[in-house]
Amino acid sequence: MRSIWRVFRKEFRETLRDRRSLFTTLVIGPLLMPALISVALSMAIRHGGTAGDRPIVLTVAHAERAPQLLQFLRQYRVHIRTVQVDRAAARALVKRSHGPLLYVPRDFGARLAAGKPAPLRLYADESERAVQSRMQRLASLMGLYGGTIARLRLVARGLDPQLLAPIALHAIDISTPQSRAALVLGMLSYAILLTMLMSGLYIAIDATSGERERGSLEPLLATPVRREHLVYGKMLAACAMMMVSLVLTVTAFAFALHHIGLDRLGMSANFGPAVAAGIVLGCVPLIPAGAALMTLVAAYTRSYREAQTYVGLVLLIPTLPLIFANIMGLRPRPALMAVPSLSQHFIIMSLLRAQPLPAADLAISAGVTLALGAVLTFFAGRLYRREKLLG
Amino acid sequence: MIEARALVKRFGTVTAVNGVTLRAGDGRITGLLGPNGAGKSTTLRMLYTVLTPDGGDAWVDGVSIRTDPLEARRRMGVLPHGAGLYPNLTARENIEYFGTLHGLTRGVRRARAEELIERLEMQPFADRPAKGFSQGQRVKTALARALVHQPRNLLLDEPTNGLDVMAVRTLRRLLAELRAEGHCILFSSHVMQEVAALCDELIIIAAGTVVVQAPPQELQARAGTASLEEAFVRLAGLGAPEPSA
After folding, report:
1. Are residues A226 and B70, on separate chains, in Cβ contact within 8 Å?
2. Which residues of A touch B (CB under 8 A)?
3. Is A163 exposed, middle or buried (0-12, 13-18, 19+ CB in 10 A)?
4. Tell me: the pLDDT tens digits for B50-65?
5. Which neighbouring-strand residues pair with B18?
6. What is the interface pTM, i.e. ipTM, of the complex?
7. CATH 3.40.50.300: does it fit domain A50-164?
């Protein structure tokens, strides 16, 4: 047992000096993932059509020729910037600035007063993606303005303005903030589990491929330490890194989600210390299984690079059940709680929703996951007995 | 003392070592000489218990590598081919780590590391991370690592590969000192001059078997030539002798 501890101490110390693994553990997990999810969440919580609410800047040439139109546009959050240019100059201006420009011709007022179609020129460079949506909004605003005038004209001629509206279409978005947020929160467990596994990746690969490629495996095997203990020590270090990552990531999420205000969604109002601790406890059983799985896969590759590729792919395996759960709308039940990683996902979701799972479900999750970890650890421990490992 | 009897190792259908019997005594430097692919490394790897023999056995100070590999490893210091270090640890930490794996207490392993650093003239780079070490610095560190538990027996696989003249000299001096202290040293090489300069005993190995084991002078006499290289070529059955000048 003491030799496991000795190997662990050295591996842990070495990892703390390795920039790549520190980056994964300290930056990607606790900073990047919560930031990404928070942004996605707050966007989901706010209205779907957020872009429609943003003000548009519109450059207008000869604004003095259409004061009422501009008044109308201002009501719909269009910022007007006036310029005095002729048509050719207007074109050139749009080319340079890319923003839309409205040119009011000289006869606009006269034709409008005469009840004839009054011309307006809207210049824009529609090859710019961002401009397209602004153009649509401007066009529909113009249409709205035109519609208002048309109705007034009909009323003035004693006709029913409803003549102009043969169809009344209501497009109704039935998505609620809750349902949109649930989709994003499904990613939360994915993010937690993935960053946790990734933090153990480098040590797991190093235990076999790394040692071999560096040429330090043979001297290590020639020391009077039982081979399993060497592997266990390394796996313990991988587990420690994963644990650090898990705690940091969950803490970061707790802070980030607190600011977003999950309570508005009718979810656990309090992603506080208790929920965070619950998530950590629920995920901990997956750590040994993950470390052993990555170590095993890395051992069967021929080089460090190959190991990175394959272990990277293997990281997707624990996340597959989560995707299925999201697509198929799976709910926790005892049989599913026996699926490692999926059960951790259920635990995280139940804690966030403040809908506690039965104790039996929690026991099944922890029991099966730990058992899987034990089996995989046993096989990983036998790896150093394989002479093929030496390459 | 290291003794091997009828060691056999097969990789699939290839028999890499086919019945090697040898003996490396205390207070002697024994050279394992042979062309590339003769089975030198495989023999050493079986002796330091990284490979398990398919037949035969070997004893380190009388301890069988098959029945008690852990105890056998305690009695050996090993410098394998390549001499890989942990890049994020300093030379001193690399040495001390192996001290801990050998179960040395903190005080003992510190003192041993310090002593070896001095002995191998490693002070300039002892506390630098091993990441940027030259081949010479790497071999020295690996050698110190192999000696940290003061083993009676030292096994080295092509230790002078890639070393410059000064590093080779330091290594030679160290080996001679260790011999004087009564250690048993077994090393492999395909460089004739090195073997001639150092060894008390030569084992010529070819095609997986020991062709001959004898002191260098005796080998020359047996092959009927004054040149050790010529003796090696003849005894290893490497082809027609060169026309003598």
Report:
1. yes
2. 2-3, 6-7, 10, 13-14, 17-18, 211, 214-226, 387, 390
3. exposed
4. 999 999 999 999 999 9
5. B8
6. 0.89
7. no
